[in-house]
Design a protein that fits this description.
Number of helices: 5
Strand order of the largest sheet: 7-6-9
Order of helices and strands: EEEEEEEEEHHHHH
Radius of gyration: 18 Å
Shape: globular
Number of strands: 9
Helix content: 25-40%
């Protein structure tokens, strides 16, 4: 049983509306009274997904340790294993491959939704952890350039050829 409030009587209660441009404005996130928040707590490296409505599939990565906070029931939390870099997973969740699979998984036209089972069926290209880090570095620079920042591609990223699995 959770209910939100503006007074500091429990953990922060993160809703999909609190996720704006890859950020959470913690000042506007309400608190909630939650009987057992332990199982719903958010940690650094966690990703949350909107599982219903117009924003179905929208994703957020907690790159830094969040304050004492839980997530709303219409969100799904994913904790990557040590074999998956959270940033790599987040970048995948921005890709056309991800969105085409989410579109295929959505149920019902009036209120599209994706549940945890359907999310677990999404195919994710896997690389070793070191390659995942290199891909993240590359994509972070590409994203910064898209945002208008002048970022040079490090020479080691330009010269390194990533292994291709047949």
């Amino acid at each position: 049983e959770k209910s939100s409030s503006d007074s500091d009587l429990g953990p922060k209660y993160v809703r999909i509306t609190d996720l704006k441009d890859g950020q959470v404005n913690w000042e506007t996130v309400p608190y909630c009274k939650c009987d057992s928040p332990e199982q719903y707590l958010l940690n650094q490296g966690d990703l949350i997904f909107a599982r219903t409505g117009a924003t179905t599939g929208k994703t957020h990565l907690f790159r830094e340790k969040p304050p004492f906070a839980v997530f709303a029931s219409y969100l799904i939390r994913v904790r990557p294993t040590k074999e998956i870099n959270p940033e790599y997973l987040y970048f995948f969740f921005q890709s056309d491959l991800y969105w085409s699979q989410i579109s295929d998984q959505k149920e019902g036209s009036a209120q599209p939704n994706v549940n945890g089972q359907k999310l677990s069926n999404i195919e994710l290209p896997i690389a070793d952890v070191e390659t995942q880090k290199e891909i993240c570095k590359f994509l972070a620079i590409v994203r910064a350039r898209q945002d208008g920042l002048v970022k040079e591609m490090p020479e080691e990223l330009l010269l390194k050829r990533l292994p291709v699995k047949e």
